[in-house]
Amino acid sequence: MSDKSLPIVEDITGLSLSYRFFWRLQYLGFSIFGPADLLPHRDPRQKMKRERARIVLRAHEVAGTPAPDEVISTAAS
How far apart are CA 69 and CA 18, in angstroms? Predict the structure, then answer.
């Protein structure tokens, strides 16, 4: 695993409005109140980014559309 931070996937395929709202709220909470200075593979914010990318990737697979490279690389990390 890399020590660099993952990008937040901008593709919203398969993500409902309520999921995106609560995801941002939880991400903000981890940014303010969460643990500091963890390695990326242990950071809860990085875990949230990977889970979001996996959901988007699954939605693309179900729809039969190609997923952007950013989504594939984030989900695979």
Answer: 25
Half-sphere exposure of 16 (CA within 13 A, CB side): 3
Band of the pLDDT at 38, cuts 50, 70, 90? Answer: confident
Q: What would the two tokens of residue 47 be?
A: 């875990």
Q: Closest by alpha carbon to 28, among 15, 52, 17, 44?
A: 44
Give the CA distances from residue 54 to residues 34, 36, 45, 48, 49, in Å, rounded to whole numbers and listed in that order: 23, 25, 14, 10, 9
User: Residue 73's closest CA among 43, 51, 53, 48?
Assistant: 53
Dig out the tokens for 34 from the structure.
């969460």
pLDDT of 1 reads 52
| In the block, residue with structure tokens 């950013």 | 70
